[in-house]
Specification:
α1 crosses α8, α4 packs parallel to α5 and α8 runs antiparallel to α9. Helices cover 36% and strands 26% of the residues. The longest helix has 16 residues. It has 308 residues and is an alpha/beta fold. It is built from ten helices and 14 strands.
């Protein structure tokens, strides 16, 4: 099974408006649904038809709504309860200009007791051959070594850790050699603490990470695709041209594709195609993790892969 952690559960509130500029809009349709980086990853995995469990640090006031949402989306849900309510993030989509504005709220600082309890809770699910996706930034109060300890636990139990985070959490996490990492260019520059210019330099930085003991490195490039490195291979994978609707959650959909491809024993090339196709389908639809299976298989055939 694929397990996905969710440290930052939230609700997404989405408005579509005719155009920005008016002070007041009445009777606007609103979309309000559970979200969070880990949940986005888990939802795409489930859409692709693989069993997935979401393990969430969950404010008690909203546990039942997340549980119901996961049940409807074929996601196994296990929660570690904490006090309070989930954050609310607001998105405003301007239909005239097709532009989007996001307002993300913060959450309270967590105690050491909560961190230790959640870590013990997660460790109880780790077993041989399972994949673990550690996705998202760490909440205030969670130590930057949190993911690195869980990656080490995965290795100790014969499980396969995938890491998608940033800052010190990424810096410490890669020292434990996760099987897969997927930083973007900005996160890579922060990791190496220097500017990186062009595909050639990105490839060299990725190769350094491969040489350090990481099995596979995906450097996401937004609309330009992904630079993928594995063993002695370095591939530039470009998506087909589409009418982009919403880019929120594209990285989450990409990582879900990676996990599903690994679960099904895909080759490195086909793993890249599926992952990029998932991100492309996400971009072609409104809302995070709103991918379409038939669309994904169609996009897979149109991914341009070149060897560097």
């Amino acid at each position: 099974m694929i397990h996905v952690t969710n440290l930052n559960p939230c609700f997404d509130l989405v408005y579509k408006i005719p155009e920005l500029g008016k002070e007041t809009y009445l009777d606007l349709p609103a979309h309000f649904f559970p979200a969070g980086k880990g949940l986005n990853v888990a939802k795409v995995i489930a859409i692709l038809g693989e069993p997935v469990r979401l393990l969430s640090l969950m404010p008690e006031d909203d546990n039942s709504r997340f549980e119901t949402f996961c049940d409807k989306n074929n996601i196994h849900f296990s929660s570690y309860p904490i006090n309070g309510s989930a954050r609310i993030n607001t998105t405003v989509y301007d239909e005239l200009t097709c532009s989007t504005v996001h307002y993300n709220s913060g959450g309270p600082t967590l105690s050491t007791q909560v961190q230790d309890g959640f870590e013990s809770f997660l460790r109880g699910f780790i077993s041989k051959e399972d994949q673990w996706v550690f996705a998202g930034s760490l909440r205030s109060g969670i130590e930057s070594y949190f993911y690195s300890r869980l990656i080490r636990a995965c290795h100790d139990h014969g499980a396969f850790p995938l890491l998608d985070t940033r800052g010190n959490a990424l810096k410490h996490g890669i020292r434990e050699h996760p099987l897969v990492i997927s930083p973007n260019e900005t996160e890579l520059e922060s990791l190496f603490q220097e500017p990186i210019e062009g595909i050639g330099q990105l490839a060299l930085k990725g190769k350094r990470l491969i040489d350090s003991g990481i099995d596979t490195v995906f450097i996401t490039l937004g609309e330009d695709g992904v630079l993928a490195l594995h063993k002695d291979e370095c591939l530039l994978c470009r998506p087909p041209e589409i009418d982009v609707v919403d880019t929120v959650g594209c990285g989450d959909a990409f990582l879900a594709g990676v996990a599903v491809a690994r679960e099904r024993g895909f080759s490195f090339h086909e793993t890249c195609r599926l992952a990029v196709a998932c991100g492309t389908s996400n971009a072609a639809n409104f809302g995070p993790a709103e991918v379409n299976v038939h669309e994904i298989w169609h996009f897979m055939e149109k991914i341009f892969v070149s060897q560097l």
